[in-house]
Amino acid sequence: MFTPKAGFLCALVAAAVTTVKAHYTLPDLIISGSVSSDWEYVRETQNHYTNGPVTDVTSQLIRCYENDTASATSTATVSAGDTVGFQANGDFYHPGYFSAYMSAAGPAADAESASLGQTWFKIWENTPSYTPGVNGQPGTLNFNFEDSNQITFRIPPSLPSGQYLIRGEQIALHVASTYGGAQFYIGCAQLNVENGGNGSPSPLVSFPGGYTGYEPGILIDIWDLPSNYTGYPAPGPAVWNE
């Protein structure tokens, strides 16, 4: 017999399942089209069971969303100029802004102390485009990757050889109209870069520290854009990809 109590419990379970499906992790590194196994080169994140996001940009978790998993993670060897990326454990269900950062990793990519300072530089971003409204109607932002579970990008060809962390990130903006509402989905992979150049990555930021949470690309109501809106401003530093 289906009782009211049983119906309430079913509703809770259904809501929980929907929530988990709406979130995701970034467990797989993509190298020249080949996808690694889960957490082979990506440090296992704290949300590997829940899929839940980071929402506090001042938290230490905003760096790589993991604690003490570096030494248990393998380091992938790639070449400067290679196409790499991340595969999520589900489609990117939420609309948002995507980016990728790298950081020189001393003493090694599998060290817990790697990349704790002002060492991160952005190598790629995918910014939503803006379509202005007509006849007094509000404009709209157009998001990418919603029917995909992969993002890919190029390691800068002039990047010097060495050990690095590479950080993939989506800032989901569906509930970002209040401070702390933006959701950060993050994965950090460990790389050994060969055949590099003599470039000087810049500008450099730290995590936490790269975002305040008040940037207009993070604190934004994408469902009710203001009448004077002109386009999405990407948060964080400018892209370096030489």
From TrEMBL:
GO terms for molecular function: hydrolase activity. The keyword Translocase does not apply. InterPro entries: AA9, AA9_LPMO. Keywords: Carbohydrate metabolism, Cellulose degradation, Copper, Disulfide bond, Hydrolase, Metal-binding, Monooxygenase, Oxidoreductase, Polysaccharide degradation, Secreted, Signal. Its EC number is 1.14.99.56. Residues 1-22 form the signal peptide. It is found in: Secreted. It is an enzyme of class 1 (oxidoreductase). Its cofactor is Cu(2+). Its main location: secreted. The keyword Lyase does not apply. Residues 23-227 form the Auxiliary Activity family 9 catalytic domain. It catalyses: [(1->4)-beta-D-glucosyl]n+m + reduced acceptor + O2 = 4-dehydro-beta-D-glucosyl-[(1->4)-beta-D-glucosyl]n-1 + [(1->4)-beta-D-glucosyl]m + acceptor + H2O. It comes from the Eukaryota. Belongs to the polysaccharide monooxygenase AA9 family. This is lytic cellulose monooxygenase (C4-dehydrogenating). It comes from Rhodofomes roseus. The lineage of its organism: Eukaryota, Fungi, Dikarya, Basidiomycota, Agaricomycotina.
